[in-house]
Design brief:
- This protein is an alpha+beta fold.
- It folds into three domains: 3-171, Transcription factor LuxR-like, autoinducer-binding domain (Beta-Lactamase); 178-296, Beta-Lactamase; 304-372, Arc Repressor Mutant, subunit A (Orthogonal Bundle), CATH 1.10.10.10.
- The chain has helices at 3-19, 24-35, 62-70, 79-83, 99-102, 106-112, 148-171, 181-184, 206-214, 230-243, 280-286, 304-312, 316-327, 331-338, 342-356, 361-372, and strands at residues 39-46, 51-58, 117-127, 131-140, 191-195, 201-204, 218-221, 224-227, 257-260, 266-273, 290-296.
- The strands form three sheets. Strands 6-5-11-10-9 form a five-stranded antiparallel β-sheet, with helices on both faces. Strands 2-1-4-3 form a four-stranded antiparallel β-sheet.
- α1 runs antiparallel to α2 and α13 crosses α15.
- The radius of gyration is 23 Å and the shape is globular.
């Protein structure tokens, strides 16, 4: 099987996992193999509390997974940079911290190295106020560090993984039989509409009918789904037509398409192709090529650490040192935690003082607290 055939089959499996979450472990195994790694995960990390959890993972030792969230996530020098990276952009360890510094950290020596892990290709799928949902492919010693080929392959699948993960969160079901999922999804809060390649509506759940009746975000015109904004309507038409040609093309179009209501409220639409795999049965039953999920967008904003970094133009390393000073304590403890020399910590701390206009570690604690609590001035 050549790369294009392998990629097409993988994308189909990824979208099937949007309907049946039990498929994610197998999908992650295939993703790891495609990118060139030994393990993969869908993970949420909170950069503020240094906590997190795996939604799904393949290939990692369960004992080390438990150790990571019990202890080593707080020592992981990559978490801050990973959470604040650009959405869908693959990154490696060296993008967040010089690799020669990384291998000196306790995190590498005590958690990664014993497993033979040397790097991870990471991409942000979605951000929250305090952290991010991440897709990671872990590299073993025999794979070597993340190279250009691994980055290229990550770019090919990340949009599809992101779309499937977002849709899975919207429908919030452990599994849905594709042949009957339209009826099954009548109970969800998101508006769901099944449409064909021309945008003609062939089915809608209760929330979808209510949305169309209100005509505030979307409406029907001669049986065709129409967005109130002409530019958005053209984008939807393009996505529907592309979906009719298969799974592969749709991943690069409108992952989370913004919709604007007449009252100014923001909504977001996610498109699930129904042209292959287990999803084909639903499309055949309803003569549909895509399922469109529409829900009101949550209020979003930068997380406190990201806001601090933006406000004071801190580098990723300066932000890591700042957060470590607040969480861990003095320079010696921070140096040991981050696996860098005390002189390096002092250098970054001095630069942070200069950029933030502070003079003591206590001032930095107050600064972080002020950003974490918008009521504290």
């Amino acid at each position: 099987m050549d790369e294009s055939e392998r990629l097409s089959a993988l994308i189909g499996d990824i979208y099937d996992a949007a309907l049946d979450s039990s498929l994610w472990v197998g999908v992650l195994k295939k993703c790891a193999g495609f990118v060139g790694g030994v393990a993969a995960s869908l993970t949420f990390k909170d950069a503020s509390s240094r906590s997190g959890q795996y939604a799904f993972q393949f290939g990692l030792d369960p004992d080390y997974v438990q150790l990571y969230f019990d202890k080593y996530i707080r020592l992981d020098p990559l978490s801050t940079g990973q959470c604040f990276a650009s959405i869908e952009q693959p990154a490696a360890t060296a993008d967040h911290i010089p690799y020669d510094q990384f291998v000196k950290t306790r995190f590498f020596k005590e958690w990664a190295q014993p497993q033979g892990l040397v790097d991870a290709a990471t991409a942000v799928l979605e951000k929250s106020l305090t952290g991010a949902a991440l897709f990671l492919v872990f590299r073993h010693e025999r794979n070597g560090v993340v190279d250009d080929e691994a980055r290229r392959r990550m770019r090919l699948i990340v949009p599809h993984v992101r779309r499937a993960a977002l849709i899975g969160k919207v429908i919030e079901l452990k599994a849905a039989e594709a042949a009957t999922f339209a009826d099954t999804l009548d109970g969800i809060g998101a508006g769901m509409l099944l449409v064909d390649a021309t945008g003609r509506i062939v089915h809608a759940n209760r929330a979808g009918h209510a949305m169309l009746a209100k005509s505030d975000v979307l409406h029907a015109a001669d049986g065709r789904l129409v967005a109130n904004d002409p530019q958005t309507d053209r984008a939807l038409a393009d996505i529907f037509a592309t979906a009719g040609n298969g799974d592969a093309g749709i991943g690069i179009k409108g992952i989370a398409l913004p919709l604007h209501a007449r009252d100014g409220a923001r909504h977001v639409a996610h498109v699930l192709p129904l042209t292959s795999g287990a999803r084909r049965r639903a499309g055949a039953n309803y003569r549909a090529t895509v399922a469109l999920f529409v829900h009101r967008a949550a209020l979003e904003g930068p997380s406190p650490p990201e806001a601090i970094a933006n406000a004071f133009k801190l580098t990723p390393t300066e932000l890591r040192v700042l957060l470590a000073i607040v969480e861990v304590g003095g320079v010696p403890e921070v140096a040991e935690t981050l696996g860098i020399a005390e002189t390096t910590v002092k250098t970054h701390l001095r630069q942070t003082y200069q950029k933030t206009g502070t003079h003591r570690q206590a001032d930095l604690v107050k600064l972080v607290a002020a950003f974490s609590n918008p009521l504290l001035k």
